[in-house]
Amino acid sequence: MVRIKAGEVVRDNPVDKVEQILQGAMQEFLQHGYAGTSMDRVAVAASVSKATVYSHFQDKEGLFKVLIEHLASKKFNFIFGTEPIEGEPKIILRQLATKALKQMTNDQEHCAFMRVLIGESGRFPELAQICVRAMNKPVLEALSGYLAAHPELKIKDPEATARILLGTLVHFHIAQNVMHGKDIIPMESDRLIDALTNLIVNCAE
Question: Which pLDDT belongs to residue 12?
Fold first, then answer.
């Protein structure tokens, strides 16, 4: 599509258009859930035509999948960066855990989206599987690889240990923030991270 602005030819950026649609989709999924969201609603929320939505996404499930993958990529890069993980385990594990909890806790949209996903997982298990595949799997693989690369930790099962690490952080976030339990079972995140890091690192000392 070509638009005229101030005497210049300006072309719409398809990447920006996709981002616009994803933002509209997130708004609708959070407000109406997966079942209550339609491509028509997404088009209105994104201020684009329905034809534009379908030109980028085949159906609602495809749109949801791309949205999950888009969020997962941003979160992964925030926590792990784009370079291989290197450094002393006691420092690196603490940094990764702190970044992960900070990202989850401070992102209210993430909390709201988790509630929608958990609530819809019974009726739409394939949606939950998309989330596990896009969000959990890459993190587990990165953690497993890092732990396996440090034999001084004397970890017999890096993959299982990575699951323990990630599972502890996710459970903390869900119990404290997603399920509104921080006043019922209060705990500072630093305390949890210290204990978790010590459990993994001190076993080798």
Answer: 58
Q: Where are the domains of the chain?
A: 1-57, 59-204
pLDDT tens for each residue of 92-141: 999 999 999 998 888 888 888 888 888 889 999 998 999 999 999 999 99
Q: What is the pLDDT of residue 15?
A: 75
Is CATH 1.10.10.60 what the domain over 1-57 is classified as, yes or no? yes
Name the helix (H) or strand (E) containing 95: helix 89-106
Q: How is residue 26 annotated by DSSP?
A: H
* Torsional class of 186: left (φ above 0), alpha (ψ -120 to 50), beta (otherwise): beta
Closest C-alpha to 68, from 138, 17, 133: 133
pLDDT lower than 70: segments of the chain: 1-13, 203-205
Answer CATH for 59-204 from 1.10.287, 1.10.357, 3.40.50, 2.60.40: 1.10.357
For CA atoms 55, 13, 17, 133, give the dihedral sign.
positive
φ and ψ of 85, to 5 deg: -75, 125
For residues 27 and 45, is the Cβ–Cβ distance under 8 A? yes
Torsion 146-151-156-161 (CA) sign: negative
